[in-house]
Design goal:
This protein has a domain of 177 residues: Sandwich (Jelly Rolls), CATH 2.60.120. It is 37% helix and 32% strand. It is built from 3 helices and 15 strands. It has a 15-stranded mixed sheet that branches. Helix 1 packs across helix 2 and helix 1 packs across helix 3. The N and C termini lie far apart (80 Å).
Length: 255
């Protein structure tokens, strides 16, 4: 999809305002357990407090923690997100885990944020994969295209699989605000990258609309199939009832 001049101009004004007015607190204080563990190998928990944010190296990748975020490094390619929001810029394979499922990418850029009972992965570049947790060992993997996001939630009692949503366009204004909040490479570069993301986001919105149209078609087809099946069952029941009535009539009137 092409970007018309009016839309692009509006976007640039919006992004400029966002970058100017977003709270720009670049505090690098953090809590590590064990103390100073990130510089060594092995498990390490890191927490940022309110108004803090932190850029860390994970193997060949960069992760940026927003304020009030808690992560646990499991190894050089895996972290577990316990709270908050994480921005990942990956040159090699990296995974973000939770008790609900895992978001992973071979190379690209994505965000992961969580609430108490839901974790959302937003894909900016590359192909993001979501593997929902399953108690029965199912190896299901969902693909999230760039410009889209999806969520994973609690494991359902029936079926033993974590709940998931369907791919949706990343909320544009919300994403630009959090991006500007963590961005450290200057306003001009931010505007340039945001403009490129906007073009990608427009294409992703069209793709998401197609996905939802297909889901609606499938649902309507399933409803029609259920109706046909129900109608067939009703016809068989009615035919059987007529047979029973005729049989009773013969027994009564033709002993």
């Amino acid at each position: 999809m092409s970007i018309d001049g009016a839309s692009l101009g509006l976007l640039l004004r919006l992004m400029s305002a966002i970058f100017v007015f977003v709270i720009d607190v670049r505090v690098h204080a953090k809590t590590e357990e064990p103390e100073k563990c990130w510089q060594s190998e092995g498990p390490c928990a890191v927490q940022t407090s309110r108004s803090e944010k932190l850029r860390l190296v994970l193997g060949e990748n960069q992760i940026v923690l927003d304020e009030s975020t808690i992560v646990v490094r499991l190894d050089k390619s895996q972290v577990r997100l316990l709270a908050g929001t994480l921005w990942v810029r990956a040159e090699t394979a990296v995974s973000v885990l939770s008790e609900f499922g895992t978001f992973s990418i071979l190379k690209g850029e994505f965000w992961v944020s969580r609430t108490q009972d839901r974790v959302t992965g937003s894909n900016v570049a590359g192909t993001l994969l979501l593997k929902p947790r399953s108690k029965n060992g199912a190896d299901e993997v969902l693909e999230i295209a760039a410009g889209l996001e999806n969520w994973v939630g609690r494991v359902q009692a029936s079926g033993g699989r974590a709940q998931t949503g369907v791919p949706m366009p990343i909320p544009l204004k919300t994403h630009l605000v959090r991006w500007a909040h963590l961005y450290t490479e200057g306003r001009e570069r931010f505007l340039k990258e945001a403009e490129a993301f906007y073009a990608l986001w427009l294409e992703a919105s069209v793709e998401a609309a197609g996905i939802h149209q297909e889901l609606v078609k499938r649902k309507l087809a399933a409803i029609d199939e259920d109706r046909s099946r129900t109608a067939e069952i009703n016809r068989k029941v009615e035919a059987r009832n007529r047979e029973l009535v005729e049989m009773l009539k013969r027994r009564v009137f033709d002993p």
